[in-house]
Design brief:
It contains nine helices and eight strands. It is an alpha/beta fold and 209 residues long. The protein has two domains: 115 residues, Rossmann fold, CATH 3.40.50.10090; 76 residues, no CATH class. A five-stranded parallel β-sheet has the order 3-2-1-4-5, with helices on both faces. The chain has a three-stranded parallel β-sheet with strand order 6-7-8. α4 runs parallel beside α5, α6 crosses α7 and α7 packs parallel to α8. The longest helix is centred in the C-terminal third of the chain and has 14 residues. The chain is globular and about 55 Å long. The N terminus is likely disordered.
């Protein structure tokens, strides 16, 4: 759910050198009023967000992104490598966002303004839907974010312990392991396509002993 409390910050973009965005769906909704030929530079954490921005804004507005594996660590390396670790950055973030990226940027000497751009909420009836899935049976559960892990585990309760899982990347892997899930595969790269490929490899390998 996108929260428009970020509006006030978006009106002052002219004073910032870089805007960082972490989610593909967030990008076009939040940045449309601000991007123009004289707008700030945009940094992203991965290819999916970069592609969403390029589709929404055909001019090449993505100035900085990880050279390898997507994520906060890769983007921090890009900031340090390109000499962009200066000035002021706006970071639209989830209400549940981790502090790894803003903390790392500040350690590089960047002034970071973090604003709550959207909220992650569990839908009504989630517990009933999860119970229905358990009753029907499934072979593996997939997760594309730590918040998805949190929501599922809260809804599943004790039944979540030890469930086989495939996850989209190392941050989600850490959340899944911390929640007691049995992580069987991690997507490489950390994209939807990578997640599908990880599932295909898992199923091709056959049942675990």
């Amino acid at each position: 759910m996108i929260g428009w409390g970020v509006d006030e910050e978006m009106t002052t973009l002219a004073g910032r050198r870089i805007v960082v965005t972490r989610r593909p769906g967030q990008s076009s909704a939040l940045l449309a009023p601000a991007i123009g030929p004289r707008g700030p530079r945009i940094a992203v954490v991965g290819a999916s967000t970069s592609e969403a921005l390029r589709v929404a804004f055909p001019d090449d507005v993505v100035a900085l992104e990880p050279a390898g594996e997507p994520g906060a660590a890769g983007l921090l390396r890009a900031f340090a490598r390109t000499g962009s670790a200066e000035g002021r950055v706006l970071l639209p973030a989830s209400s549940r966002a981790r502090d790894d990226l803003p903390r790392g940027l500040r350690e590089l000497g960047v002034t970071v303004d973090v604003v709550e751009a959207y909220r992650t909420v569990e839908p009504a009836g989630l517990a009933e839907a999860v119970t229905h899935c358990f009753d029907k049976g499934f072979g593996v559960v997939t997760f594309a974010s730590p918040s998805a892990v949190e929501g599922f585990v809260a809804a599943a309760g004790a039944r979540a312990a030890g469930l086989p899982a495939v996850v989209i990347g190392p941050t989600t892997e850490a959340a899944a392991r911390a929640a007691g899930l049995d992580v069987r595969a991690v997507a490489r790269p950390s994209t939807a396509e990578g997640l599908v490929a990880a599932l295909e490899r898992l199923f091709a390998a056959g049942p675990s002993p």
